[in-house]
Amino acid sequence: MNGVELRNVTKAYAGLTVMENINLQIADGDFLVLLGPSGCGKSTLLNMIAGLEPTTGGSIHINGRDVTGLEPDERDIAMVFQSYALYPTMSVRRNIGFGLKMRGMAKGEIEKRVAEVGELLQITPLLDRKPSQLSGGQQQRVAIGRALVREPSVFLFDEPLSNLDAKLRADMRIELKRLHERLGRTIVYVTHDQIEAMTLATKVVVLDKGSIQQVDTPENVYRRPANRFVASFVGAPTMNFIDGKLTHDGDDIVFDSGSGCLPLINVPAEIRDLIGRPMTLGARPEHMVFDDAGISSRVLLAEPTGPDQYVRLAVAGSELTARSGPEQIFKSGSDARILVDGARMTLFDPQSGQALLGS
Amino acid sequence: MNGVELRNVTKAYAGLTVMENINLQIADGDFLVLLGPSGCGKSTLLNMIAGLEPTTGGSIHINGRDVTGLEPDERDIAMVFQSYALYPTMSVRRNIGFGLKMRGMAKGEIEKRVAEVGELLQITPLLDRKPSQLSGGQQQRVAIGRALVREPSVFLFDEPLSNLDAKLRADMRIELKRLHERLGRTIVYVTHDQIEAMTLATKVVVLDKGSIQQVDTPENVYRRPANRFVASFVGAPTMNFIDGKLTHDGDDIVFDSGSGCLPLINVPAEIRDLIGRPMTLGARPEHMVFDDAGISSRVLLAEPTGPDQYVRLAVAGSELTARSGPEQIFKSGSDARILVDGARMTLFDPQSGQALLGS
Amino acid sequence: MPDPAQDVLHYSATPQDAHQKGRRRWRPQWTARMALIPAMAITIFCFYGFIIWTFVISLTRSRLLPVYKFTGFDQYGRLFANERWWTAMQNLAIHGFLFIGGCIVFGYLLAILIDRGVKAEGLFRTVFMLPLSMSFIVTGVIWQWVMNPGLGLQEAVRALGWAGFEFNWIVRPDRSIYTLAIAGIWQQVGLCMALFLAGLRNIDPNIWKAARVDGIPVWRVYLHIITPMMRTVFFTVFILMSAIVMKAFDLVVALTGGGPGFSSDLPARFVVDHILNRQELGLGAAGAFVLLCTVIAVIAPYIYFELQKERSGRGH
Amino acid sequence: GALHAQTAEVLHWWTSGSEQAALAEVRKVFEASGGEWVDTPIAGGGNARAAAVNRMLGGDPAAVFQFSIGQQLRELADQGLLANVDKVASEENWDQKLPPLIVKAAKYDGDYIAAPINIHGENWMFYNKAALEKAGVDVPKSWNEFVVAAQKLKDAGIIPIGLGGQPWQERIMFNSVLLGVAGREFYAKLYSTLDDDLLDSDTMRKVFETFAALKPFVDEGSPGRNWNEATSMVIKGDAAFQFMGDWAKGEIIAAGIEPGTTVGCAFAPAIDTAYIMTVDAFAFSAMDGEEATPAQAKMAHVMLEPDVQIAFNKKKGSIPARLDVPADSFDSCAQTAIKTLQDEKTHLVSTGLFGVPSAVSGAIDDSISNFWNSTDMSPAEGQAQFHQAISNAK
Amino acid sequence: MRYNRLALYGLLGIAAIMILSPVFIMISTSLKSMDEIRNGSIFTLPADPGFAAWGKAWFGDCAKTLGDTCGGLSSSFMTSVKIVIPALFLSVGLGAITGYALAAWKMKGANVMFAALLVGMFIPPQVTLYPLIIMIRELGIFGTIPGLILVHVIWGVAFTTMMFRNFFKTVPEDLLKAARIDGAGFWPLFWHVMLPLSLPILGVAMILQFTYIWNDFLLGLTFGGRAGQPMTVALNNLVGSQFGEKEYNVDMAATMLTALPTLAVYLLSGRMFVRGIAAGAVKG
Ligand SMILES: Nc1ncnc2c1ncn2[C@@H]1O[C@H](COP(=O)(O)OP(=O)(O)OP(=O)(O)O)[C@@H](O)[C@H]1O
Ligand SMILES: Nc1ncnc2c1ncn2[C@@H]1O[C@H](COP(=O)(O)OP(=O)(O)OP(=O)(O)O)[C@@H](O)[C@H]1O
Ligand SMILES: [Mg+2]
Ligand SMILES: [Mg+2]
Fold first, then answer.
1. Nearest Cα residue in chain D from E61
2. With respect to CATH, is domain E74-280 assigned 1.10.3720.10?
3. Tens-digit pLDDT profile for residues B70-92
4. Could you tell me the distance, in angstroms and rounded to a whole number, from the CA of residue A231 to the centre of ligand 3?
5. Is the CB of C216 less than 8 angstroms away from the CB of A103?
6. H/E run at residue C94
7. What region holds the ABC transporter domain (chains A, B) (predicted)?
8. What ipTM was reported for this prediction?
9. Please, which residues have CB within 8 angstroms of residue E6's CB and are 6 or more apart in sequence?
10. Please, are residues A146 and A99 in contact by the beta-carbon 8 Å criterion?
11. What is the pLDDT of residue E281?
């Protein structure tokens, strides 16, 4: 099989297991994003694929070849680091070409390849500068160039954009996406930023505490989270959670939190099976609907972000966030009526946190 | 006058003027956000208000008192830094109480105030830790506590949230906003993150290259930018700009970019006066409408972010970004029809960059 | 518009500032200046005062005690006609090169070896730094023993059966200067090692990872990437070791006594010998002044570098 | 300085066993006559001299301090730092009892500023009798004979000259050669006038040639060696000869050998008899005036008392500074020296400490040591360099 | 991989042996008798190790001296301690304060003054003894321990200032700003914030200054007078005399005894030393 495959990979530091029995298949040409909170083991996993950290158990296969015991440079991979890790005393040109030179490539050929990469990443005018003379975004581009020039079959990125400011991050994101479409190589990309995961990935792996929570397309991870951890980690502002149970309110089904009943619309039919059992309802801010049929709630705070507006509401004993358009005016302390789009909500088992209804 | 006032403030470093004739009035209780790109002089301005940088010219008044020559601790201000700047060798308790101790406050009184602040910021259990034993968000809270405890009349914040990750940033933002509503003190807040500016400010000052571009409410800065710089700096993804002119297309008014005509809807009446003159049209992604009446465009890339989706389009010789809901599917290379919401667009003079029609 | 008088009124009325009664408080900046006075006094009176004094004395014919009968630049004439002085200056160059070079090379090598992740790191580090605790006099005495051809290493190796073994540099006029470097390096290599090790530890570990992914052999990483990054450390080491070379006195006295003949003399010893033993204060002062000028020529770039570094560091 | 009137701090560099024993003789008598002795030993002549001067400059002088008599002492007197002991000297008529050369050196402006305590001879040659016998050579009477004998010794596997390769030891050997080749008049004239013609003369060339001819006869380990290690080589028979001052006798005695028995002493080969003298002396800091305090005067008195002179010098290995004390209790070498010195023509001064200005002294040491240790310098070059160094230092 | 490791440890081992062997020679010689020293090689182990020489070095040999003291090191040990401790604290303290003032308080000419001060690191102290003697005399403290301490401070301040200034330059500016806003003036900022921060570099400066001052001979000899002769002067008296039989075992024992305190400091603080250097001297 082409691509990358991890079989029962385990990692322990000084006896402390930080990762156990990881199994993962990354198809050729995938843009796989490893998403998870700080310390969950993303970098460790990436480093094991790169060969920078030895595995404690299991095996790693790249393009069908078992690379578990190989050195990084024998694995046909390239890597880009958050801190760029450019060689500070070399010019951009030498930074990019140095790996080729070490492989004994001819000078002329190196020149050619560096020029091509420079062209592709639009850093040709910077080729003779030192890294310290570049802005953060330019440095990141050079770091990518250094990976590109080697033409490996797998690219590994460890939070490559997190040192950049918001604007630049957005631009670089688009560039990376285009680059992937153009080269068609496998990419494994680590981030803790869910927007990056959503926009870049063809497949997202959500990690928590060294174990895989969900492997799916970005859309599914967002819309059908496998469990409460994934649901709360992905999405900003975060998903609203309310404990309670589904009950009938006349013909309608409502969600009874014990201190109030939240009306639901567009309720899918299969949900009726769950009526009465205790559960947690999860609803994203954009799936809370301001509607006169809704439950009455008190506005705590309105956060206009420009295109949208997030409103914190006190309702049925919880604090919830709902999204609205920027025009509507919410005064703190005033009243608003709110309901939940039942077609888009997620229901979780309160004990295990697993999503109810096959996601 | 209460609050903060800057009169003709000028700043030069070694002869190089980085800031000239800044005049600014910050009303008592305002939450004023200084917004601008890196290096535009935000920190410099804040430091001058704090007394950490001497002014080269002009004067600074706090609560009606000329503080231009005073030491920082005589100005009745407190400041919170991006890097937190906690004293690494002191416990949280001592960190917070240090400023009071320096003022010679009695021990018991310090204890009391520190405890209050700890309560307020929910850091009571952390009071005996060292800063290095705290997470970033906790450190930032302590830094805020250190400012709060002094009960100054003006708070200064220099990018206090930019070292935090996205999730934490969103939470802290809300906390800050609540804190401001609760204490009612004047806040001057520096950031280059427009979301922070939009959500926190009662008044935004947009700075560029040491001069003030616009002073207004967040809504107005977003919806009625004073010039092209403000328009492009505020909002992410950034506003779309197209050069061309307004022309008649039958009864309708369209925007003619030279290589295609962009249909407009909801065109305000006063715009008719501008027909024919060269100008730049600015439209934010959420004000681009997918509509069969629109101009045909080619989809370059679709970026789903979760709640929304940003679509890059090639249209009328430009590349534009439009926002749509997450459900619709845009395949790269496919066709989409697009038009602009004329009620929300902004028009700029192509030479000066100033907004046309009094904003 | 509040007028200034009103400002003061308002000011003293503010509760926090009531105790100041409208007067400007004592500024911490002034305290900072006061705190510099002792060091400034030492710098001006002791360092520069003494340098000037030395220069003045070098223009006199003082012998045992300073006398202020001026003879112009006669002492410099005598100094430059003195063969021993030139030998000493030449030795300074040789010793400086070997000692500083040796400390840098060996210190760096040891630091690299330790940095490769050895087990008993603490033990090795401590061992390498042990000689630092010895004075130069002690160092000289020990090495005089070890290098003495009749008693030390040469004899010991010969006793083991290698009859032709020669290690008699200390008694050879053309080699004795090298023995100074050996003993000096032995003593100072630990400090250099510690400095280099600290520098190596400050290097972003991702650089190492990037180099491994690039498939760069370890020695090349050190040569092409790490070493250039350690420029500041090299400079620090260079300056510290230069200071030692310029002041080298005790070591020469204890190790070779400047001999054989004056083949291993150094300027600092020349100067001290003339001032304290030969009662040639004027000549010694002239030598000292020439030595100081040499020093300034060496450290001027350092000072320039320091200031430059900080100025360029400001933008970040 | 606020010590009791009869208290004297004595700063000296005599820290070795025999030196301390000798000095103890002075101390015993000084204390017996009511003085109180505060001892400040500092090893190394250079260190001690520097400390004495520095403490004087610093206003915390030692009342009595060991110093070499000559130019430097006069410079201290010039600055008013010294007290004189004229009263004692005239009462005891030092002018008559001390050798005239020493009297001259100990006086500044007609006042005695130092008390000479002894005379060391520098042109001694110590030899191991057994070694000479083994090689079948006699004690050489001339430098030509010496070279022949040395060759024989070398052939027999004995190191001919046990030399401590330090400049001052090399100079002692050189001066012996100078005296032996050029004669005492030449020596005296050369060092008192530093005359260019003499320095350039053929005689001088011959001195350098002879000196150079000795180079093959020292062992490899010579450079840097201490004099007592060299003496020990002679005692053990590893080396045959050592040219050294009579303090070497102390080392010989310490090894349990009576000087003149198995280890012999003789003057270095020479065309006429002479004695190169070097003198240990004590000077007196000006404590409250130009005149010595009672304690200082007492010290001066004690040091030149005949009994002290005998007891001290026997332990020290030198001979009394006063030539009028009975010689019979001294060893045979010392007796020879005392007898020799009765003839004033034999009085020569060492270039080490008081014969010539210290700058010249240093220049002499430097250039001789340089010549001796260089492998490629011809005698002519050595002579030229010697001349150059002396003129430069004058 | 394996062979690499072997070579690595091999090289380190050789280096360690080369560094240690002179110290080993000293110790083993100090445990030998004089006969053994005369007849054996310096590299052999003592046949019958004994501490007689150490006793002699420490207590002296009263039979050989004039009797005021017995010439051992014991008498001057306390003198050394009395000199080193105040000199250490004063020179490091002054360096810390000066370095702090230069680095943390933006003052015009601070860099020039620092540059000027650095020159002091390069002046051989021997060269300027005379004016220093006169200066100390005029202060009325020549020949006393306080005088000697002052001299050590003068010659130590350039080095300690350099260490501290370079360290304090790495302290983030925001921290200083925060303290100023908190109203911490010059001294509170120093005591409460900067000094606690500088502990690693303080350690390094203390260790190096301790070594320099403890090992000093010249300044002690010149400025100590009679009362202030440190251990190194006693050591010199023991081993430095030109005349008379040399007792190498006693010499070596005395040398080791003199070096013992500094040796102990290095043995006990090796890790701290490297960490301190990493914290300050190198970052620059
Ligand atoms: N060298 C090490 N020794 C011991 N534990 C380690 C080591 N490196 C990492 N860990 C632990 O392994 C876990 C995973 O670390 P890792 O760096 O992979 O996290 P991450 O997901 O990359 O976090 P971040 O987003 O902060 O980079 C963490 O709990 C960390 O403490
Ligand atoms: N000490 C200084 N000396 C010289 N120029 C300075 C100094 N400090 C700041 N500047 C310059 O003044 C300008 C404004 O700097 P300032 O730090 O206020 O920017 P900023 O808006 O806070 O940027 P950022 O978002 O990166 O913090 C910049 O061009 C900067 O280079
Ligand atoms: Mg990571
Ligand atoms: Mg800033």
1. D17
2. yes
3. 889 889 999 999 888 999 999 99
4. 22
5. no
6. helix C83-115
7. 4-234
8. 0.86
9. none
10. yes
11. 56
* Sequence ranges of chain E with CATH classification 1.10.3720.10: 74-280
Residue type, D108: Y
| Type of residue numbered B237 | P
Give the whole-angstrom CA distance, residue C214 versus residue A101: 10
Q: Before B304, cis peptide (omega within 30)?
A: no
Q: What is the mean pLDDT of residues E217-231?
A: 85
CA distances from residue E29 to C145, C184, E21, E37, E47 in whole angstroms, order as listed? 11, 22, 12, 7, 11
CA A38 to ligand 3 center in whole angstroms: 7
Structure tokens given for C304: 């320039």
Looking at every residue in chain C, the average pLDDT score rounds to 83
Token duo for residue C134: 């010895």
What residue of C is the nearest CA neighbor of B77?
A: C16
Query: Which residue among C82, C262, C276 places its CB closest to the CB of D46?
Result: C276
pLDDT in tens, C271-306: 988 887 788 889 999 999 999 888 888 778 877 776
If you search the block for the tokens 């950290």, which residue do you land on?
Answer: A53
Segments of chain C assigned to CATH 1.10.3720.10: 82-315
SS (H, E, C) D344-393: HHHEEECCCCCCCCHHHHHHHHHHHHHHHHCCCCCHHHHHHHHHHHHHHH
pTM (predicted TM-score) = 0.87
- Decide whether any atom of ligand 1 lies within 6 Å of the A54 Cβ: no
Residue A159 phi, psi (nearest 5) = 45, 55
- The dihedral through the CA atoms of B72, B75, B76, B81 has a sign that is negative
Residue A197 and residue A210 in contact, taking contact as beta carbons nearer than 8 Å: no
Label the pairing between strands B77-80 and B154-158: parallel
Q: Which atom of ligand 2 is nearest to the CA of B45?
A: 18
Nearest by CB to residue D75, choosing from C65, C173, C256, is C65
Q: Is A101 an interface residue toward C (CB < 8 Å)?
A: no
Please, which residues 57-116 of chain D have a Cβ atom closer than 8 Å to chain C? 57, 71-72, 75-76, 79
pLDDT, tens digit, 9 for 90 and up, residues B17-43: 999 899 999 999 999 999 998 888 999
Alpha-carbon span A252 to E132, nearest angstrom: 100
The yes or no reply on domain B240-357 and CATH 3.20.20.80 is no
Backbone φ and ψ of C173, nearest 5°: -55, -30
Average pLDDT, chain A: 90
Q: What does the domain layout of chain A look like in residue ranges?
A: 3-226, 240-357
C216 at interface of A, judged by CB pairs closer than 8 A = yes
Q: Number of helices and strands (H, E) in chain A?
A: 8, 19
Residue of D nearest to C74 (CA): D392
Q: Which residues, 6+ apart, have CB-to-CB distance to A283 below 8 Å?
A: A239, A240, A242, A320, A340, A341, A344, A345, A346
Q: Is A131 in the pocket of ligand 1 (CB under 6 A)?
A: no
pLDDT exceeding 70 applies to what percent of chain E?
Answer: 91
- Which overall architecture, per CATH, does domain B3-226 show? 3-Layer(aba) Sandwich (3.40)
Two structure tokens written together for B37: 């790109």
Q: Which amino acid does the sequence have at B275?
A: I
Question: Which amino acid is residue E89, in one-letter code?
Answer: F
Find all residues with CB under 8 Å of B68, minimum gap 6, and list them. B55, B58, B59, B60
Q: Which among A64, A47, A52, A53 has a CA at the least distance from the CA of A7?
A: A64
User: Could you give the angle at which helices B42-50 and E173-181 cross, rounded to 10 degrees?
Assistant: 30
Fold for the domain defined by C82-315: MetI-like fold (1.10.3720)
pLDDT tens across C94-142, in order?
Answer: 999 999 999 999 999 999 999 888 888 888 888 998 898 888 888 888 8
Alpha helix (H) residue ranges in chain D: 17-32, 45-57, 71-78, 86-92, 94-97, 100-106, 129-135, 143-155, 167-182, 184-193, 196-200, 202-213, 227-236, 248-254, 294-303, 306-316, 332-341, 358-373, 379-393
